[in-house]
User: What shape does this take?
Amino acid sequence: MATIRERSGRFHAQVRMSGFPARTASFPTKRLAERWAKTIEAEMIEGRHFRNVEARRRTLADAIDRYCCDELGFPEGAAADPAVARSFLRTQAAQGRVLKKRDARTRIIRLRWWREKIGHLKLADITPSLLVEYRTRLTHEKFTRARPGAPGSTLEEGAQARQFTRSSPTVNRFLAYLAHVLSVARREWHWISHNPFDGVSKLSEGAGRVRVLSDAERKALLAETAKDPQLHLLAVLALTTAARAGELLALEWHDVDLKDGRLLLRVTKNAQPRVVWLHDEAKRLLEEHRRVRRLDGRVFASVKGKLYRYDQAFETACAAAGIKGFVFHGLRHTAATMLAREGATQEQLKAIGGWKSGVVGRYVHLAAQDGKAVLAKMSDKVLSK
Assistant: This one.
């Protein structure tokens, strides 16, 4: 219990309770000493005291390091050293092992940003106002996506890397990943008594971009991508299967069945493998592609056998076709909308494209707009006098 003694004009309070380390503090008045002692006793009784001690002892870097090991499955030191993380990922890929979380690579990269910026701070010093400050930094900070000599980089020596700023959804992912670290630290490790993200709001992401190609745009774009066989194949598969770029880039030859005309997509956003069926043209292009590619490893690869980078080539094709404000993921939107126009139900769209949420409703809505003129004519006849 609490003991308060007066020494040299100050009041020294000490709180002792079985199972907890003794706490001592000094105050100018007895009233402040008594108030502090009651607060500490209450925290000990409610179980918050131990967490507060841990929060003053542990740093954010400690929490991120443990999270990357316990929750993501990375070896010790991977959060601090990118080389350790890359080596681990290469080993996992070579052995065909699946990571604990599908987005583990993205998580550790973004958590490393937090570790570098404020990893030295004690968990007790991570406040909502501090997080809001760094949310603003994330929004305005300039960054590059490539550097010469980096593993997998296609940037030539001496070339200037493009600079980018983060979108609101990307900033929200940075916040969400750190929020989960602190949630685990509170719920599982008992390092903190509350999550400071409880006082931090996310940025508005808007309604989401749904840019769909018109028939003329689609034909013009395919005419341009046809000049690059590998890009053309990737674009045709995206348009005819509604698959994501990452799902197609991870596709391996042993998961391609040209006889039955189907692909098995193992690496998907929701970690649920699914089968997609090939259109005759897509099947023909894949057969041609197989004649000039190795039949082991990934279907899409660079000349040096590394990950195929389609971004710049696709931007060039869009520019040549006179298409503005369009990204590769828009091919998935286009495919989904065309499927809805052909009468595909929401459940069928989910099965084909692998959607798990109600996002497919937007494609059904876009398709429904096509019927506006038809409904107007029918209504005129129904209501005509």
